[in-house]
Amino acid sequence: MKKSLIPGIIIMIILLLPSVSEAQVKPQDKPLIGMGVSQVNITPPAPTVMAGYAARTQPSTGVHDSLYATALYFSGEKIKAMIISVDLIGFTSAYVDELKTDISKASGVSSENIMITAAHNHGAPSPRSTDSDTTNTVPAYVKFMKERLLTMARTASMNPVPVKMGISKGECRMNINRRALAANGTIFLGRNPEGPCDHDLVVARFEDMNDKPVAVLVNWPCHGTVSGQDNTLITGDWPGAAARHIKNSIGNDVVVAVTAGASGDINPLYGPGKNFTEIEAVGFHVAREANRILADIKTYPLKEVQTVSGVMAFPGKKPSSADIPVDKLEPASDAEIRLTVFKIGELVISGISGELVNEIGMEIKNRSPYSGTIVATHCNGSSGYICTDKMFPEGGYEVRVTRFMPGVEKPLIDKCVELIHQF
Question: Which parts of the chain sit beneath pLDDT 50?
């Protein structure tokens, strides 16, 4: 009589089943990233010197609309990270280092995992003292702002919750290349519809596990200069208007962080001036496209946050005396550019500490292996204008004031792409 085959078959099935430990390391079983958010009002409580235009030396005369700072905090098993965005023109590298040290103490996030970006708003207070600040208003505002930012960072890190996220891209054509050709052959700050201009508008949506929106991150390459030197009222310019319009659609309790893409040579279609209808219009068009994108974004559980950073030094250049091209550039001490790259799910943020022109930003995005790559300028410091090599023989404002000699473009792009490939 033959023996039954059933026991042997059962043993084989058991041997083929994955062990519990193997099942536990499947990617889909990774613990979710926790996220905390916070937003604070950083509108100056008193008149203060404004930034962005050398001809505007007197303190602000009032407030048209409030300024805000936002914090997006991410907490994983191995890493904690934070993105802070502010409605200001930017910060010096020394001040960023000081601020990151204090934020690290307040939030528990390592300094190297903190990204501080500015919307490059020209309608806001100056964060640095100048000889023209005869009323000494800047130190008082910087102290006030720092206290608000530390409170915000601490609040964001207190109660992170698991989140889902999604990212998508649209287009907003309310920006234009500003390197215009004058009749005498020089380049001036105007409107050049034939010049290269990145119109990409990228939106990331974060929501809790019950599909309730928690935060929105927007990236669009455009100077915050609808507000010009004739305006003396504090304003968030188009970034502030865009955030308001997005909140009106998605919910006032949702934190909206607006970041500036590579826009060293890109201005809004309107301005610069003191027409607040134009400021609202640019912000409205940005928000309208962002809201359209938000409605269609598919979210997924957030399970990965990674960061990497680097510093590059290049031969320095002294400012030129005019916008016309010069045969010989005057050398200066080496100048540095700080690079900070975050990967949050499918979103890759390449943060650069200067006013990067849009062709360099587009090349970084094109060479990135991740379709959800954005460039965030005025990030973790202030390196000034970063130009393409071909701009130097043309001259123009950006070339006149840049701190760098020609030769930055290719190695900077290569380094940014190299850092992105580390993920």
Answer: 1-27
